[in-house]
Each structure stands twice: as structure tokens, then as C-alpha cells.
Design brief:
By secondary structure, the protein is α+β, with helices and mostly antiparallel strands. The protein has helices at about 5, 20-35, 65-80, 90-100, 110-115, 145-150, 180-200, 200-210, 220-235, and strands at about 50-55, 105-110, 120-125, 130-135, 140, 170-175, 215-220, 240, 255-260. It has one domain (about 5-155, about 165-260): Bit1, CATH 3.40.1490.10.
């Protein structure tokens, strides 16, 4: 996608990311080329996945939309972290994951379990007090015990209406017809953020990095969803089409990412 099709005319003046050299460019180029083409291994335990841990405390739980925004930010931040680069300690694991079908599995944590999750290699994002941590991908059969004990399903958060997204933010629009759980939605917005940053130019990606990959997650109305699908068809937005392993039918369009609000 070209700059004219993906970026608002109201560009922001931002500081460069911490890693402003060739390393960032190479990691962005890897996402821009595409990924996820290898077949699954015969052994289900060898399937590769990125765990995403959602911090869901009992007292004063965060907004659902903020948790999803944190999940999206953490995912793309890990994908562009210098530690996944050619000489980084996460490179081998990350490249193996991106060569396979992209899978993410969200789990929930609170209290001491959340603190333990932050000792597992990964990246944490905080959005308005909501926190999510994307962990280095690996085989599902070799999951760190501190993460394996965390529940995948269970606690939900009420759907909220955070209002109009701030001007200039990318917006990740959720399909209103699928009624995805919080964990499923977290995985889907994470994938949408990956697709979006891969569609940006390197300069745009650096600008987004300087904003810590902040986005707005919103649930589309049925009318908005129709308009969003038309943007995808015109090459003006990117869409996640789910493989159908959990919750939704194969090929379902779960999230559509656009660079700014784009709709009334």
C-alpha cells in the first residue's frame, strides 16, 4: 500500500524510536514481505504460537477496549523489537514463528501470576492503565510453566464505548457480527497491528514506533463494517481473515485496520 492510501494528511512530528538504524529497517522489511506460509507440523505440540498475557485484576478492572489496544501495541512492539533482529536473542524463535501459520493465544493473569508473567521474555504495553504482555513465540508443548498455568478462557470484560478515536491514530475495527471473546479479540487485534505495520512505509512505521504503537480499538456498527470492507477491497485498509481454529468460521474477517478514523 502506498503512503497516500494508508496515512492521514495530518502527519505528526515524532521522535525517532530508540533503535533508529538499519536494524529497525530490516525488521520492518521482514513484516512487509509477508509471513505465515509454512504448513503446520505433524505434532500438535510443536505448533508455534505467541502467548499474549492480559492483566485482568479483580479490583478496578480496565476497559475492554484499552486491554485490546494494549494487546495490539505489545504484539507489534515485540515484532519490531531489536531482540528479534538478526543478532538478537529472540531471532531464531521469532523467525520460526513467522515462517509458520501465525498463531496467538491470549491468557489472563492477575496478582502474583501477572508479576511472574513479566519475568518471561516479552514486551509489555500499558494503555490507560490496561496492560498486556506479548511473549516470545515458541512451541505450544514447551510453554513456560508460569504461562501454562494461566487460563485461556474465563474472565470477560464488559463491552465499552470509548467514543471517537483521537485524530491520527490507526483504528482497529472489530467485526460486530462475531461476538468474539476477549481473548480471541486480543489475538485478532494483535494480528491486525502486524498487518498494518507491514503495510506502512518504513518512515510511517518509525513514526508509529515513537508513539509506542498506540491505536484505537473500536467495535464497528453493521453499517460501518460494510463501508470498511469496501475500503479493504479498494486497498485502503488491511483485514485479518481467521483460519478458523477457534470460535469463528474459517475465512471470517475479524478485524479491519485503517490508518485513521475514516468513517463517520
Amino acid at each position: 500500500m502506498s503512503r497516500s492510501s494508508l496515512v492521514s494528511d495530518q502527519d505528526l512530528v515524532l521522535e525517532p524510536p530508540a533503535d533508529a538504524g538499519a536494524g529497525f529497517a530490516a525488521r520492518h522489511e521482514a513484516l512487509a514481505r509477508g509471513y505465515g506460509v509454512a504448513d503446520d507440523p505433524a505434532d500438535p505440540a510443536a505448533v508455534l504460537a505467541m502467548p499474549i498475557v492480559l492483566h485482568l485484576p479483580k479490583q478496578d478492572p480496565p476497559r475492554r477496549s484499552a486491554v485490546l489496544e494494549a494487546a495490539a501495541a505489545a504484539t507489534v512492539a515485540l515484532c519490531l523489537d531489536e531482540r528479534v533482529g538478526a543478532d538478537g536473542p529472540w531471532n531464531e524463535a521469532f523467525e520460526a514463528w513467522t515462517a509458520a501459520r501465525i498463531r496467538k493465544i491470549a491468557r489472563r493473569a492477575r496478582g502474583s501470576h501477572w508479576h511472574a508473567a513479566n519475568d518471561v521474555p516479552g514486551v509489555t504495553a500499558d494503555v490507560d492503565g490496561a496492560q498486556a504482555r506479548a511473549l516470545v513465540p515458541g512451541p505450544v508443548g514447551e510453554l513456560d510453566p508460569r504461562i501454562k498455568r494461566l487460563q485461556i478462557g474465563g474472565t470477560e470484560l464488559e463491552h465499552d464505548d470509548p467514543g471517537q478515536p483521537a485524530a491520527g491514530l490507526p483504528v482497529l475495527w472489530i467485526n460486530p457480527t462475531l461476538n468474539m471473546t476477549l481473548g480471541k479479540a486480543a489475538a485478532q487485534v494483535g494480528h491486525a497491528a502486524m498487518l498494518l505495520v507491514g503495510a506502512l512505509t518504513e518512515e510511517e512505521a518509525r513514526d508509529w514506533a515513537a508513539e509506542r504503537y498506540r491505536s484505537a480499538v473500536r467495535e464497528a456498527t453493521p453499517v460501518q463494517w460494510i463501508a470498511l470492507q469496501q475500503l479493504v477491497g479498494r486497498g485502503l485498509a488491511v483485514a485479518v481473515r481467521d483460519a478458523g481454529f477457534t470460535e469463528v468460521a474459517p475465512g471470517s474477517m475479524t478485524v479491519i485496520a485503517v490508518p485513521d478514523i475514516g468513517l463517520e
